[in-house]
Design brief:
Spore Coat Polysaccharide Biosynthesis Protein SpsA, Chain A; nine-stranded mixed beta sheet; two-stranded antiparallel ribbon; elongated
């Protein structure tokens, strides 16, 4: 459980204390003794110079170098969050913040606290989340080339492809949000992927997201970022929160290729100067079965996200409003019957040949494929119905 050590609120002027802060500057901290005092002092000074009634909340994440004490001495409220993680620290800081507007910044001096008034201005003008864009104003030595030219552009590009946020720098650590929209975001992640989660959930919630250029400076002290580990956590988070791209699209492609391949083999169409026989049929059956299974997993993931995580997807909402359990059972049953009919046809041919040699391999594979896919559809429909028992 998070605990608050002390409390200081900066006033509109150096000698006037604001009873209730309008802005809370939240700074996560893990062993930042080299920088934390200057970060807190700069934030307080900027708010005083711009007549902003505010406070500085430092979310300490288990520092062992005296960072909390230095933050308190500089005038911050300190929240102790023993659960490690960038997201854990921020969620503790958000819970302790009292301002209507929350400005976020790291404790490593990479961001200029003089930008606080601009973030506040955008929020007061109607924005609900404001994000800094570092990519055109990176100071020499501030960002490794791997992050600048590969990591951040690739991850931001994937995020925009999946969720259409339009954000140019999805991982900028200096951003701001209205406190009253936090319940709608329902933030949960504990690690560095917290930055991606904020943007994704804001986009899904239809928030007014704004962005403007800021400068990015070389950090003070030792970096806590692990390029490959944290990069993978971001990518994993993007995939897990987009069942359409993780399951539905690949599953549909596999199923389509499988059906086309199977039809080519069954009809013995002359393609590329040759006929495609049994081995092609087996490959088509494999693609079709795997594709159908991946599609079923995608629908289950969408259902779980909708009913248990509050996710919203217009395509899925449209489909679930028009299709019920019975539709899936009928579709699965029809496919199973078609497979059994083919199997009966093969048996009839065998009987007609007096139980002699049987050479209907392609039909046998097609029959087995239809029966397997039909069973998948039939029981997956029940699974979706079970997940959907929790309807809001």
């Amino acid at each position: 459980m998070s605990t608050v050590e002390t409390e200081t609120v900066v006033g509109l002027t150096p000698d006037r204390v604001a009873p209730t802060p309008h802005v809370s500057v939240v700074i996560p901290c893990l062993n930042e003794a080299e920088n934390i005092s200057e970060c807190v002092s700069r934030a307080i000074e900027v708010m005083r110079e711009n007549d902003i009634a505010g406070e500085v909340v430092v979310a300490d994440n288990g520092s062992e170098d005296g960072s909390p004490e230095l933050a308190v001495a500089a005038g911050a409220r300190v929240v102790h969050e023993p659960r490690r993680g960038y997201g854990s620290a921020y969620m503790a800081g958000f819970a302790a913040a009292r301002g209507d507007l929350i400005v976020m910044a790291d404790a490593d001096l990479t961001y200029d606290f003089a930008e606080i008034p601009r973030f506040v201005e955008h929020l007061e003008a109607g924005g609900e989340m404001v994000i800094g864009d570092r990519m055109q104003n990176i100071q020499p030595g501030a960002m490794p080339w791997l992050h600048r030219y590969i990591g951040n552009p690739v991850l931001t590009g994937i995020l925009n492809l999946f969720f259409r946020t339009g954000v140019r720098d999805a991982h900028c650590g200096m951003r701001a949000v209205r406190r009253d929209v936090l319940p709608r975001l329902d933030l949960r992640t504990t690690g560095m992927e917290f930055a991606s989660e904020m943007v994704i959930r804001a986009a899904k919630a239809g928030l007014d997201i704004r962005e403007f250029p800021i400068e990015y400076h070389p950090r003070g002290g030792e970096s806590k970022l692990s390029s490959f580990r944290d990069g993978w956590r971001h990518l994993r988070f993007l995939l897990v929160h987009s069942p359409t791209h993780l399951f539905i699209v690949p599953g549909a492609i596999l199923a389509f290729l499988g059906i086309v391949t199977s039809l080519i083999s069954v009809t013995q169409i002359d393609l590329f100067g040759r006929q495609w026989d049994l081995h092609t049929m087996v490959g088509g059956a494999l693609l079709t079965i795997v594709g159908a299974q991946v599609l079923a997993l995608g629908l289950a993931a969408h259902t779980y996200g909708t009913y248990f995580m509050g996710e919203k997807d217009p395509w899925f909402d449209y489909m679930r409003a028009r299709f019920r359990l019975e539709h899936g059972l009928i579709l699965g049953g029809v496919i199973i019957v078609a497979g059994l009919a083919l199997a009966a046809t093969i048996v009839a041919i065998w009987v007609h040949r007096s139980f002699g040699q049987l050479g209907e391999e392609r039909l046998a594979v097609l029959s087995a494929t239809l029966i397997i896919v039909g069973i998948q559809v039939f029981f997956s429909s029940f699974l979706l119905s079970i997940l959907g028992l929790r309807r809001t």
